[in-house]
Amino acid sequence: MTSLVKLEWLKLKGNRFFWIGLGLFLTLMVLLLVYFGDINVFGQSSKNEEGAEANMLERSFGEAGLYNLPHIWQNLAYLAGFFKFIPAFILIFFVANEFQYRTLRQNIIDGLSEWQFFLSKFFGLLIILGISIGAIGLTIVILALQNNDLSEVSLWASSEYLLALFVEYLLYMSFCFFIVFLVKRSAISIIIVLLYYLLIEQIAIGLLKANGLGLWEYLPMSPGRELILQPFTRMLDIDMLTGRVSPVAVEMKYVWLSTLYSLIYLVGSWLLLKKRDL
Predict the structure, then answer these.
(1) Are 256 and 193 in contact (CB under 8 A)?
(2) What CA–CA distance (Å, rounded) separates 26 from 40?
(3) If you placed Cys at 258, which of 114, 171, 183, 271 could pair as Cys (CB 3.0 to 4.6 Å)?
(4) Rounded-to-integer distance, Cα 237 and Cα 149, Å
(5) Residues near 119 by beta carbon (within 8 Å), at least 6 away in sequence
């Protein structure tokens, strides 16, 4: 098993697209998490012309508590969730190349079994996932240390949101894993993933909610959307105005549903590979 991890890491390490994609992910993610706090909520200064404090809504996200413990974990994990497309697309290109350039067949000829090949791709998924979540977690820790007094609150309070982010990324990447094993082409896989996630399932969720049907929670990617809900109404003290209360804990139902769907996609990927004529 260790040899399969090493094999996959050598493939990733020698792939220029992997480093370009990873560099893009890290750069964009760090820039957003670091500088999002400087954005003024309504595009206005937090002080009026006389220098006095302005209305409570006329402040930056940082002033509103974006980096304050314990909520920093939820706040920044929510923002980081928007970047899951980049590591997922790195994975799609990486796996699709095995089909397009027939290196899959060559690996089988060289002595790898179908199961070993599948495991190697799964380890590739875990490597990309681990680097992504590790970078996000490190960024959150650094920002928390810079903006909080740890004598008053624990650094790890509410850090379960990092686990929730891991599960959210795992679900999305497992779905991409399944799609690329199904169609074997990177561009087509990306189009299918984006169409389903951003359009088809969103329409289905809207229709089910409009008809009062709770089944929308069980759509393939829906549990991942519910893991880390927006924290901004709580942060800006407008929960009462919007009628929506921002959650302060991860709902385990969605953790288990997301994990179950991830396993279904991974098993489905293996079954597709096993039935293919290599």
Answers:
(1) no
(2) 24
(3) 171
(4) 23
(5) 1, 4
Mean pLDDT for 119-132 is 96
* pLDDT of res. 55: 54
Least confident of 186-190, 214-218, 231-235: 231-235
Q: Are 180 and 186 spatial neighbours (Cβ–Cβ below 8 Å)?
A: yes
Q: How far is CA 19 from CA 14, 24, 58, 59, in A?
A: 9, 8, 40, 37
First to last CA, the chain: 22
- 235 — pLDDT class (breaks 50, 70, 90): confident
Exposure string (b/e) for 107-137, b if CB count within 10 Å is 16 or more?
beeeebeeeebbbbbbbbbebbbebbbebbb
**Cα 234 to Cα 160: distance, rounded to the nearest angstrom:** 18
pTM (predicted TM-score): 0.92
Crossing angle of the two packed helices 114-147 and 72-80, in degrees rounded to 10: 130
Q: For residue 40, what is the DSSP state?
A: B
